[in-house]
Write a structure and sequence with these properties.
3 strands; 190 residues; 7 helices
């Protein structure tokens, strides 16, 4: 049985390949390692649903179930042989083949005439401020963690910095084009 590849499924398979662990620990490690910047674990339920998918597909197995005093029952998972092979295949595919993704920002750009040009400019100016804040935070995080982590553990943050820098430059250019009138349209209420 094959299961749908996703960043969360890949992350969970990767973690149980490091060491057998329970769902809560997987979610904790993703957050502690700041991988929640690239893998969505905001909803704990999504972790459990993904674990169920991986179990049904035979990519992970239950190693043990235990209960500590006054604590909920904890199920510890480990990868199967097929799970390890699948993880390696997914990694090769995710690294080599650009995915067709549908982020919100390009979708909003596709429909700019829904708003007045001044509204768009104001919204983009807010985005610039958010991007600047996020970029500064990422720069600080990279500087601090580079002191004790090998670069291999920071490459996704380097990628994010590069993408944020490019987006920031693009959005600043759009704001300037809106200010100068190089980008304009007739807005009509629908």
């Amino acid at each position: 049985m094959s299961t749908r590849r996703s960043p969360l499924a890949m992350a969970l398979l990767s973690l149980v390949s490091e060491a057998p662990m329970h769902a809560y620990r997987m979610q904790q490690l993703i957050k502690e390692r700041h991988k929640d910047d690239v893998v969505n674990v905001a909803q704990r339920n999504s972790v459990y649903q993904t674990i169920d998918r991986l179990l049904r597909a035979g990519l992970i197995a239950v190693r043990e179930t235990s209960r500590e005093e006054n604590r909920p029952e904890r199920t510890v998972y480990e990868p199967t042989g097929e799970g390890r092979e699948t993880l390696r295949r997914w990694m090769r595919e995710m690294l080599s083949t650009p995915a067709r993704e549908f982020p919100e920002f390009p979708a909003a750009l596709a429909f700019l005439p829904v708003l007045e040009p001044d509204e768009v400019r104001a919204a983009l100016e807010e985005r610039v401020a958010s991007l600047e804040t996020r970029l500064a935070s990422l720069e600080q995080e990279l500087a601090e963690t580079a002191a004790f982590l090998e670069r291999v553990f920071l490459v996704e943050s380097e990628y994010q910095r590069t993408a944020l820098t490019a987006e920031l430059g693009y959005v600043r250019g759009l704001v300037e084009d809106l200010r100068s009138g190089r980008l304009a349209w007739d807005y009509r209420l629908p």
